[in-house]
Amino acid sequence: MDAQPPVNPDAPVTPPPGEPARRRLGRRATLIGSVIAVLVVAGVGWLAWELTHPDAPAVAEGSRPGGGGAGRRAGGAGGRGPATTVGIAVAERADIPIVIDALGTVVPQATVRVRPQVSGVLQQVLFKEGQMVKKGELLALIDPRQFQMALQQASGQRMRDEAQLEAAKVTLQRFRTLLQQDSIARQEVDTQAALVKQLEAAVVMSKANEGTARLNLGYTRIVSPLAGRVGMRTVDVGNVVSTSDANGVALITAISPIDVEFAIPQDQAPMLQQNAGAFMEAKALDRTRTTVLDTGVFAALDNQVDTQTGTVRAKARFNNTRLALFPSQFVNVQLNVRTIKDAVVVPVASVRHGNTGDYVFVLKDDQTVALRPVTRGQATVDKVQIATGLQVGERVITEGADRLRDGSRVVLPGAAPGGPPQASAGQRRMGGASGEGGERRRRRDAAQAPASSSP
């Protein structure tokens, strides 16, 4: 075997071919991977910050390429969030009516069932079903012949008693003359005086009997006791009617004027009681609340609360000249208790409620909004009174308030985002673009000029 050369421990070790290149390539890949990982982590962190902090201050315009557009898109108070398109309304003065709404029932002031006062055969019926009648108008006629005979008999009895009384008075006068001449005893004079008084009483009774007979004869004419509408007829000609008939001859209901009874919550009763002496207008509407049937006034308030429903009965009175209200009809009642004069009002949609109470967003001159606490007052269908916290002429946000905060920038309908300053910047950008386009056209024309001038 060949002898191996001695190894020198101080000599440098020579690496195998290709090993230094691989080692240098591994270090470079590790460095590049670390840089990429750091960039990815930074990007994810920035994205998470943007998603969780939408109101963070935006990058100033011009700090990076395209930063001008980003800064304008993030426009807001102090550069907070994108501008929001909103609707506005102006606080104004108006009269706010305090109205009580209730469901009522039409009740006639009087309903009378006309019954005969004497018994007899019904001879005539002079009304039609559903007819409007006046007070004292003749409705029906009972056969009057028997009552005429009774009246004649009573008149004859009265005339006989009156004749006897006259004779007794003449005799009494003669007896008194004889008594003065001492030609007759005083006892006979006294007896004759007592007879005169008896005959005077008989005459009074005869006159009363005659009046009763005349009254019964008048009852044969059945007349209307009030003005109103006649209901359905319950008896026909030829029937014997009497005072004990349950249905009577006719049912008359007074419909002009007419009342509407309704119930109000017991909490609103003191307010009505305080204004009972003032004029309070009441409106009767149909079941759809679209048509006003009639307009009247508040009439009365009950003196006790219904313990079962917790309400108090009230009544309003209507003239019902158009006969739009019908007895037992259900209507919707609107009672105007009083009116608040010159109240500061805004649309109902502009008032919002938070943890600390009601508030509105007030639009300032720099196109930003300020959160303003307010005190709500009376409200109508579309308006609400602001008792405190707002002045007449201030502008409030009515639409888009869900996306607003105190100090947010807004855009009015029909205006460019950011207002006039952004519009002028846009115009400057448009001008720069047009200048750059003109420069390109001039260069293109200069390049084409030699070609076109060559033969």
Can you describe what's shown?
The protein is of the alpha+beta class and 455 residues long. Among the domains are: 84-95 and 342-411, conserved putative lor/sdh protein from methanococcus maripaludis s2 fold (Beta Barrel), CATH 2.40.420; 100-109 and 255-339, Elongation Factor Tu (Ef-tu), domain 3 (Beta Barrel); 111-251, RNA polymerase II/Efflux pump adaptor protein, barrel-sandwich hybrid domain (OB fold (Dihydrolipoamide Acetyltransferase, E2P), Beta Barrel), CATH 2.40.50. It has 6 helices and 23 strands. The protein has helices at residues 19-52, 67-73, 145-180, 186-219, 269-274, 420-453, and strands at 84-85, 87-90, 92-108, 111-114, 120-125, 132-133, 138-142, 221-223, 228-230, 240-241, 250-253, 258-265, 281-285, 292-301, 311-318, 330-347, 352-354, 357-363, 369-373, 375-379, 383-388, 395-399, 410-411. It has a 6-stranded antiparallel barrel with strand order 3-12-15-14-13-16. α3 runs antiparallel to α4. The longest helix is centred in the middle third of the chain and has 36 residues, at 145-180. The model is unreliable at 55-79, 418-439 and 448-455 (pLDDT under 50).
